């Protein structure tokens, strides 16, 4: 993924383009040239190589070469082995204090006296605003740049007649006053009143001595609450953007600490740990305050710019990506504007608006009601609306109750109600998950009053067999009948929006195939006008083959999950996006394997050489496969890609694989051996959960993070070999493994503490 300011962009043709300064005109205007690569990494490497080549091929004649060119090239070459913050500092000092004065000098005229004179000028009058001299520390850094560039020039054959070994800048030592004991007590008293995240940062600095950048880079996972240990592994800095084309003047970077000694573990006092636990618990409330601060600073107009507010929240509330995503989604659905309008009206209108906003988020973004409530609460808080005073809707399971929009919500109707049609007659809308996981529902006849069925309304009603929909139905949400494994028929009265063709429920307006019933033909021929197939549409349907239409453009791999008789896919040859190779569904360019037929009769499969990505759920539920052979072109494996591949016994992933999605090998209970690629950095959440046959596994040195429940319920797993760079192990990573599990590690204090806390044996390699 390209970073802001790198001048690397993805083209419409799929290639990556890198831009660099080829030369400058007499007036200093840049002239650009370009390099191209098949991937971001390829383009980045070519860009770096081109810059180094530039540095090596400039004219070495002192009379022709300007000192500014030497300095720029030396800084460009230094970028390879210095931190980004250091590089940014070099660029700033060079542009502000060296190039304007010495940049146009030929190297032959750069003398010791010239540099000495310039250093003296900087100390006395060097400020950009002409109001005095620079600090000795800054001038010392500038002198370091000049010395380094001259050494580079002499090593490169320029023969610069300038000797600066004896030239130094005496740094002034600032007097530092330490707070007295009484002052410390008073400061603590102030900090502990109405403790918030900012005050806690100051308190943490007082009792640990950590730097401000280290405080700003902290994550909750860096505090071991069981051991009372704070781990310092990162520091945060705001640096100047250096590359041409950067959208902002500055950017935030998180890097390794200042030195190796700065990587340390610090014990926390008990009361500091208690405050940390309390703040972690109230993290969402802190996020609300951050959003409030953004709107207070920038005004309510910021609500119209979701991208801008997301960028600001990254500064105000770093590390809370899920919350930011919720807010952005809410704003894109117009929630902020609706609440602003309702705020100026009476309280009853506000109450209705809040309820409507929550429902809108649930329906439009498919989030839980709790998540939608949080997003609306946060925006309301930031706008000064006291949402907490609004009465919360209470659901009485023993007595049917309807809200203002005549929507049936989960819990309103008990599962054992016999006279369901009569009860439903009071409603117009079947709400989000209203009947989800209902164990008794078998036959459903919806009355004419029902106008809408919200997403996942009948999710996982495993005994539901027959559904009759009224003619008045106007909208059926995504996944309304997902997980209804026993669904035999769907009947619908003549309707302008929906129809049932060959056992398939079809949204006529949006040309979407929503759900297939058990009455469908064994060779399913989808109507040619269909453009979208919803997730889980064919789940557990007994079809042997399927013909995908020419206009199909949106397809999820898990649309065909657990179709145990499906042996092959066919696709209309005129389809622009999809193709098949020996019955396996691929993208048109053959770089992505989208879906493998679950009923494939062979036990071995060789992935095509062209495949670079295994899509989400691509092999999920494939019953017969025992071995899969990959090529060296494979780069990524999607989430749940091999979930429930129950006969898969061994797997060797090529070193080219960079990412493995969460739950990728979940419940592969015959998988006893897997070789992980050397370049992988993270083992995702639940990656090997339920792989009961694995007895031992070696974690490559590249891995830094092991996700939550990564090896949960691996009942045979007895030995794990880890290297010295593991930085995080998630909750329950080894819960349910063999009782005598042992972790063999190189010197790694974090893993040692983790093993001690979770009573896991460990040994040193």
**Given the structure, what is the number of helices?**
17
CATH homologous superfamily heading of the domain at 8-155:
Tyrosine recombinase, N-terminal domain
Report the top-level CATH class of the domain at 8-155: Mainly Alpha
Beta-strand percentage range: 15-25%
The beta-strand count equals 40
Radius of gyration: 32 Å
- End-to-end span in angstroms? 35 Å
Largest sheet: 6 strands, mixed
Summarize this structure as a short list of keywords or feature phrases.
765 residues, DNA polymerase, domain 1, 28% helix, six-stranded mixed β-sheet, alpha/beta
Model description:
The chain has 765 residues and is an alpha/beta fold. Among the domains are: 148 residues, Tyrosine recombinase, N-terminal domain (DNA polymerase, domain 1, Orthogonal Bundle), CATH 1.10.150.130; 101 residues, no CATH class; 107 residues, no CATH class; 127 residues. It contains 17 helices and 40 strands. It has a six-stranded mixed sheet with strand order 24-25-26-28-30-32, with no helix packed on it. It has a five-stranded mixed sheet with strand order 16-17-18-20-22, with no helix packed on it. Strand 4 and strand 5 form a beta hairpin. Helix 14 packs across helix 15. The chain is globular and about 95 Å long. The two termini are 35 Å apart. About 2% of the residues have low confidence.
């Amino acid at each position: 993924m390209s970073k802001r300011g790198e001048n690397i962009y993805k083209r419409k043709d799929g290639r990556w383009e890198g831009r660099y300064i080829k030369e400058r005109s007499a007036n200093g205007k840049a002239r650009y040239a370009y390099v191209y690569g098949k991937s971001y990494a390829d383009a980045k490497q070519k860009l770096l190589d081109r810059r180094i080549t530039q540095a090596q091929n400039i004219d070495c004649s002192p009379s022709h070469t300007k000192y500014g060119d030497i300095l720029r090239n030396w800084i460009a070459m230094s970028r390879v082995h210095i931190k980004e913050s250091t590089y940014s500092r070099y660029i700033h000092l060079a542009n502000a204090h060296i190039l304007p004065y010495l940049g146009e000098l030929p190297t032959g005229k750069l003398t010791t006296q010239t540099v000495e004179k310039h250093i003296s000028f900087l100390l006395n009058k060097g400020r950009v605003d002409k109001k005095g001299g620079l600090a000795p520390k800054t001038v010392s850094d500038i002198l370091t740049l000049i010395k380094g560039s001259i050494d580079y020039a002499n090593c490169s054959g320029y023969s610069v007649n300038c000797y600066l070994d004896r030239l130094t800048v005496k740094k002034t030592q600032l007097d530092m006053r330490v707070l007295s004991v009484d002052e410390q007590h008073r400061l603590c008293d102030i900090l502990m009143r109405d403790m918030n995240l900012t005050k806690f940062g100051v308190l943490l600095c007082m009792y640990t001595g950590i730097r401000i950048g280290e405080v700003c880079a902290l994550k909750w996972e860096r505090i071991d609450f069981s051991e009372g240990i704070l781990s310092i592994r990162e520091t945060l800095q705001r640096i100047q953007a250096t590359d041409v084309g950067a959208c902002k003047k500055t950017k935030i970077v998180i890097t390794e600490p200042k030195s190796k000694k700065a990587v340390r573990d610090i014990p926390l006092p008990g009361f500091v740990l208690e405050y940390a636990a309390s703040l972690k618990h109230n993290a969402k409330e802190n996020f609300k305050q951050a959003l409030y601060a953004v709107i207070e600073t920038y005004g309510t107009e910021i609500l119209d710019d979701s991208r801008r507010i997301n960028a600001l929240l990254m500064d105000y509330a770093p590390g809370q990506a899920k919350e930011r995503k919720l807010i952005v989604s809410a704003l894109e659905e117009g929630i902020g504007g609706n609440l602003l309008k309702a705020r100026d009206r009476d309280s009853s209108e506000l109450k209705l608006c809040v309820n409507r906003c929550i429902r809108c988020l649930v329906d439009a973004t498919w989030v839980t009601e709790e998540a939608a409530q949080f997003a609306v609460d946060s925006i309301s808080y930031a706008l000064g609306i006291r949402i907490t005073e609004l009465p919360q809707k209470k659901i009485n399971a023993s007595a049917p109750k309807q809200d203002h929009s005549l929507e049936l919500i989960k819990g309103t109707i008990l599962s054992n109600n016999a006279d369901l049609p009569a009860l439903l007659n009071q409603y117009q809308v079947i709400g989000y998950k209203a009947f989800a996981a209902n164990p008794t529902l078998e036959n459903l006849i919806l009355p004419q009053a029902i106008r809408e069925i919200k997403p996942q309304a009948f999710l996982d009603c495993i005994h539901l067999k027959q559904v009759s929909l009224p003619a008045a139905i106007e909208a059926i949400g995504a996944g309304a009948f997902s997980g209804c494994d026993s669904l035999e028929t769907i009947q619908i009265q003549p309707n302008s929006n929906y129809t049932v063709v060959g056992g398939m429920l079809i949204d006529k307006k949006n040309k979407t195939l929503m759900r297939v019933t058990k009455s469908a033909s064994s060779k399913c021929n989808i109507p040619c006008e269909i453009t979208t197939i919803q997730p889980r549409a064919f789940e557990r349907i007994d079809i042997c083959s399927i013909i995908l239409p020419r206009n199909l453009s949106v397809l999820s791999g898990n649309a065909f999950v657990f179709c145990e008789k499906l042996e092959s896919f066919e696709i209309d040859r005129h389809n622009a996006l999809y193709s098949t190779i020996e019955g396996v569904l691929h993208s048109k360019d053959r770089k992505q394997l989208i879906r493998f037929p679950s009923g494939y009769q062979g036990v071995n499969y060789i992935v095509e050489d062209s495949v670079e990505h295994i899509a989400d759920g691509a092999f999920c539920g494939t019953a017969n496969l025992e071995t899969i052979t990959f090529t060296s072109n494979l780069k990524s494996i999607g989430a749940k890609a091999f979930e429930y591949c129950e006969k898969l016994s061994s797997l060797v992933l090529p070193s080219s694989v960079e990412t493995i999605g969460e739950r990728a090998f979940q419940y592969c209970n015959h998988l006893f051996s897997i070789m992980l690629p050397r370049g992988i950095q993270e083992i995702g959440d639940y990656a090997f959960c339920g792989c009961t046959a694995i007895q031992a596994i070696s974690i490559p040195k590249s891995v830094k993070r092991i996700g939550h429940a990564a090896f949960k319920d691996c009942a045979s797993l007895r030995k794990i070999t880890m290297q010295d760079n593991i930085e995080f192990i998630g909750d329950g990573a080894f819960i349910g493994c063999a009782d005598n599990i042992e972790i063999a590690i190189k010197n790694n204090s974090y893993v040692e503490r983790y093993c001690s806390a979770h009573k896991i044996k460990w040994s040193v390699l």
